[in-house]
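PROTOCOL LOG
Step 1. Enter all chains and additional molecules of the complex.
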Amino acid sequence: MTELYDVLVVGAGPAGLAAAQAAAGQGARVGLIDAQARPGGQVWRHDVRRAAPRAAREAIAHLHGVEWLAQHSVIAAEASALRVETPQGSNLLAYGSLILATGARELLLPFPGWTLPGVTGAGGLQALTKQGWPVAGKRVVIAGSGPLLLAAAATLRAHGARLQGIYEQASTATVHAFARQLLHWPARAVQALGLRARLFGVPYHFGSFVRHAHGDTALQVVEIETPNGTQTIDCDLLAAGYGLVPNVELASALGCSLTYPGAHPQVQVDAFLRTGVANVYAAGEACGIGGLAVARLEGTIAGHMATGNTEAATALLPQRNQARRFGDLLTKHFALDPRLRKLADQQTLICRCEDVTLGELDAFSDARAAKLATRCGMGACQGRICGTALAELGRFPRSGSRPPLFPARLATLAGAATFPSSDDEYRGSRS
Amino acid sequence: MSGAIATYDLIVIGAGIVGASCADAASADGLRVAIVEPGPIGGGATAAAMGHLVAMDDDPAELALARYSLQQWEAFAELKEAEFSRCGTLWVARGEAELDAAALRVARLGAAGVEAHLLDAKTLYELEPALAPNMSGGMLVPREAVVYPPRVARYLVQRAQSCGAHLYAGRSVQTLIRGGAQLDDGTTLSGPVLVATGCALPALLPQLPMRARKGHLVITERYPNLLRHQLLELGYADSAHGDADSSVAFNVQPRPTGQILIGSSREFSATDAAVSPAMLQRMLERSFSFIPALRGLQALRAWTGFRPTTPDGRPYLGAVPGTTDQWVAAGHEGLGVTTALGSARLLLDLIQSRPPAIDPSPYAPSRMAA
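Step 2. Run joint prediction.
Step 3. Record the structure below.
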């Protein structure tokens, strides 16, 4: 069965919510798709213990006239339609216009010990914590780069974690230079001060990064490189995140052009957020990491554009361009220390799906040749983690992914509208 | 290297499983070998393939080549890179007519020296309980196996290199010239050439007809013990050897990792490499009708590949018509992995003027010149 939407929005984070709201305001039939059960995306992910920020509550409350398609995972692009999988079955959603608000994922950098149980991404641990994963009383080290570390720390602290410190790889001088720039973005400054206040008493170190995680069967100790030499800290959990990488897989499957401002691709859009593919727009982090304000503005612009309201879109462009400059500032000041790209050694696992070490990849200068010979990137993540890490390490760009965009039932690939319940018997006995 | 000339006893063009096997066999024979490969080793049909080592018996010539080649595959049974898994091939019969036909095939395979047994329905379900009800029985070919072809190709090229072969990686042959080949960087390689470029054959040898026959495959997450044998429907040959523009057949393989690899489809007119949702759907529905439990499994990836297909379905193995220093090994369609090692031996015997172990005439490229 095929449903037809005037505007289909993929991703219910800040960009997608704004896009859906703007498009629905024009009276269009709007569908908002997200793989999660609740809207909010990563940054506004529902927290079992804490109320969402007011902006998030308002954005979600304002979804009048929008069909909220929860737990819809987009698995393939077909002609002017998306194949989605839901817990009950699968469906083909046709669209007049499509807005990609697919957001970003965390950049994970491999280092010795990064695959030990207890080591996660910073955003990853934040998400788990919000979902109720118990961290109360746990000793947590937070490391990596960028404002995401503070947000993760604030969530962890609110859930009772014992924060052992936040280790920012950028130097004191560049973080201070960034802080001075915040004066030009008062809202950002207030946000940052608010976060710092919530993290009162938690040491925030600069020019420092985790070089090694140790433990027998799970994390016990992290070794941290600081400007004053190496320190070791006992901890139960390490949350390490090195910034964000745009999610471009769906855009790529649709045939949209990508650009590479650095090691990682982003969706190429014009000033009005049009991709090269007719009636397909992209907004927010997918077009380059810019933060929450950019996402909301671009979402609104894309929603207007998709419903032919160029005037309303045009009116927002100056604000959006100003907000994008903040993103550029982040990129510049939190650029990664080259030493971070040298931490992984020959034995460090790079591809966790297929157990491939960095040493096994030495002979290759091309992602596809490496994949064929070692299976690096052939697992469930299709190189989202290892391919991105290898690109960041300067080895080779990630190779193109294959359908489906995310693992999906064979019945979905076969176009089945509903799943027979008996199939779950085997799923349950999977070892 | 521009304008430089290097001389070899054999210039192998293409490092798929067939070219790699030829380079390995030639190096083992003591020849000075060059290998020219523009992409990753085993990056074409070899990478897309299922890696099933199987004897098809409907053409006596194909059976002889497969049988000869399967014997040589035994030398790789313990090789880590081959990921050799002797799962056997189980051909499934739907209906008594298919089971009767299977009896003939058991006899044909047996006569060729390939062990095969007829199974009644009870034994069939003991061997593969996940099969849908109402199957009539089947045929088990217990010694057949699956391998991981791109790593085998890489191993063979490396073994050839350790015997002195030179790999021109990232280079392609622009033209065949008198007494050699011209590379895209201007290098001239001098010596007899062996063209093993699969679907790309017409670029260098347009006189030998070749069509690309598209296929789809899907691989799942790990489900160890769901299936134990490579499973095919006995009607498979109707799809594989029929001339319909598009067809599907049930062909499912348990990988040593526990993953399930699902085929197969055939299309002549599709030229783009994109996964076709409609074709995928047809192919998967076919597989569900044999193994209903597949419906609920998680698919990780779907991809396509192109089988190099000659007009009569047999590969070209021998001298290029009208030449004495140009050889060809291409057009193995869906059996390139099975028959690569035997093809290489056969061709090296011809190149070295030794009597081959099997009759080479059914594969002679000159059949197309007639």
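Step 4. Note key features.
Residues 102 and 356 of chain B are 31 Å apart (CA to CA).
The first strand of chain B starts at residue 5 and ends at 7.
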